[in-house]
Design brief:
Layout: E1 6-16, E2 24-29, E3 52-53, H1 66-70, E4 76-83, E5 90-96, H2 106-110, E6 116-117, E7 121-124, H3 125-133, H4 136-142, E8 145-149, H5 157-169, E9 173-178, H6 184-190, E10 196-200, H7 206-213, H8 218-229, E11 234-240, H9 248-260, E12 265-272, H10 278-284, H11 299-311, E13 316-318
Length: about 325
């Protein structure tokens, strides 16, 4: 039964309006085979647990200090005193030596304020359905539904398939947010249960794709063609990163590919680069690889790109 199938997620987000039509519930699965330089959800990348630290939750080592006591590898020490989140007192917060940490997560388990935490949650399909059913009336009124996102949900295929099947069995619209980097056979198997694929097209040159996102693009492009041939609907997502993929050559190549599968595309979203996920890297103790001075593409450039897509008869929009 579906409730016996489990998967790893890092969040369930309600009342989402950016990941498919209407008001939606987003199920964010954990783990992704890609490593996009600009990824704004680093907590989604790894397939296992992670140790994250949110300093605004910390109540201080003098009052608590349970994390230091829980760590038997000497990876946590008390930092210098600094103002707390309210600014009304000085506290000492934990400093994590990531070279000593083995992600045992004992410190997160001991933290009463969840300042140290593990983004991973092990859930069943039924756990997800309970959250989804709570918002059924919003889907009905707005034409919304459920979006299975990630990470890459196709990397947990058994769980994603079971969740999509159960959602469709209960009459919910299903969108699948995917990188396209998964076995073609899996897309064909899940296709009858997916109303809309939110499909990333990030780089059309395969060698450049490996540099920017960590994998070649042949399988990604093949799957887009196979899905549309089989009657699947795509909402193409084109993240536009200045100096990397927002180039004249890549924009033209992306448009030309979209023309090949035009009949299966509902809309092409042109997504300007942003840095909203940069703080998440700090929480995970990781390096954010993008240039801190890199700005979003100018509005004029985005409009010119939109005009180009529209001139080809492609259903594009800036999102």
């Amino acid at each position: 039964m579906s409730e016996e199938i489990f998967g790893n997620i890092y969040d369930i987000q309600k009342f989402s309006v950016h990941d498919g039509p209407g008001i939606r519930t987003d199920i964010f699965t954990k783990g992704c085979p890609l490593k996009c330089l600009w990824c704004h959800s680093p907590e989604s990348q790894g397939f296992g647990g992670d140790l994250a630290f949110m300093d605004i939750r910390c109540i201080g080592m003098k009052v608590c200090g349970l994390c230091l006591k829980a760590c038997d590898r000497g990876a946590i020490t008390a930092g210098e005193e600094q103002p707390n989140a309210k600014g009304d007192e000085m506290i000492s917060m934990p400093v994590i030596d990531r070279t000593k940490c083995d992600t045992c997560l004992k410190c997160a388990e001991a933290c009463p304020a969840t300042a140290l935490y593990n983004p991973l949650r092990r859930v069943s399909v039924e756990d997800c359905m309970k959250a989804i059913r709570q918002d059924a009336k919003y889907y009905e009124k707005s034409g919304g539904g459920v979006t299975i996102s990630g990470g890459e949900p196709m990397s947990q295929f058994e769980f994603t398939l079971a969740l999509a099947k159960q959602c469709r069995a209960e009459g919910f619209h299903v969108a699948l947010d995917t990188t396209g980097f998964a076995p073609t056979a899996h897309y064909m198997e899940i296709l009858p249960y997916v109303n809309l694929f939110l499909y990333d097209l990030k780089c059309m040159d395969s060698k450049m794709s490996e540099k920017l996102v960590g994998v070649p693009n042949e399988l990604i492009l093949k799957n887009a063609e196979e899905i549309t041939k089989a009657g699947g609907r795509l909402q193409v997502r084109f993240p536009m990163i200045p100096k990397l993929n927002a180039t004249e050559k890549n924009i033209k190549a992306t448009a030309e590919f979209c023309l090949k599968i035009k009949d299966g595309i509902d809309v092409i979203q042109l997504l300007p680069y942003h840095r909203l996920g940069a703080m998440k890297y700090v929480r995970l103790g990781r390096r954010y690889h993008m240039n801190p001075n890199l700005e979003a593409p100018p509005a004029e450039f985005m409009q010119q790109t939109l005009d180009y897509f529209l001139s080809l008869g492609l259903p594009a929009q800036i999102s």
